[in-house]
Design goal:
The chain has 204 residues and is α/β, with parallel strands linked by helices. It has one domain. Helices cover 37% and strands 29% of the residues. The chain is built from four helices and six strands, in the order H-E-E-H-E-E-H-E-E-H. Strand 5 and strand 6 form a beta hairpin.
Length: 204
């Protein structure tokens, strides 16, 4: 009799421990995924462009929108701030007077819904659901101390990526980062080419 009585509390304790472990596992499985941290996109690996100006000025004219179809606020690395980073990493003021003004005119991303497969076939088809189109437009201008324009170049880059309907948020953020990186690589190449082609007299 005493052996039976002593075993019951042990069985109850074991059952409670197993139930606690199960609930803990369920809570872990239902917890939201930890957002991925992405590095800043920089341009320090490229040689700086030394301009015959005394100042470098960056003006962000683009105003982000959180209204559909705009989704640029969802990007883990901001396109406009990355364009600013380009100016700080690539341009150097090496002269005695004048200003190089970098104006960010566009840094937008829009979501375009894609057609879905209908009917019974659609139940077994993982369609591409959304196309994200990113665009950046930057102007570099050489100004005198009195504000007169002496030279101007502009570069525009555009990239797009489509994602499937079952994509997770973390994977979508990875697509956004890759899209931003490719976009800014294009912009850097275009601006570098245009500055050396049309602002050669202001490069030291």
């Amino acid at each position: 009799m005493s052996a039976t009585g002593s075993g019951r509390p042990f069985r109850l304790f074991s059952l409670a421990l197993a139930l606690s472990a199960f609930m803990g596992l369920a809570a872990c499985q239902n917890s939201p995924p930890v957002p991925t941290r992405f590095p800043d996109i920089t341009f320090s690996e490229y040689p700086p462009i030394r301009l015959d100006v005394a100042h470098i000025e960056v003006v962000d004219q683009y105003r982000q929108s959180d209204q559909p179809p705009h989704v640029e606020e969802d990007f883990p690395v901001n396109i406009a701030r990355t364009a600013e980073r380009w100016a700080h990493d690539r341009l150097r003021a090496a002269g005695a007077q004048g200003t190089a003004r970098v104006t960010i005119k566009d840094a937008s991303v829009v979501a375009q819904p894609l057609p879905q497969t209908g009917g019974v076939k659609g139940l077994f088809t993982n369609d591409q659901a959304v196309r994200y189109v990113a665009r950046v437009d930057v102007v570099v201008e050489i100004l005198t101390d009195h504000g007169f324009s002496r030279a101007l170049v502009e570069a525009t880059a555009q990239r797009s990526r489509s994602v499937p309907e079952d994509i997770t948020l973390n994977k979508r953020d990875g697509v956004f980062f890759d899209l931003t990186e490719a976009l800014m690589t294009d912009l850097n190449a275009s601006l570098d080419k245009n500055i050396h082609a049309f602002m050669a007299r202001y490069i030291l």
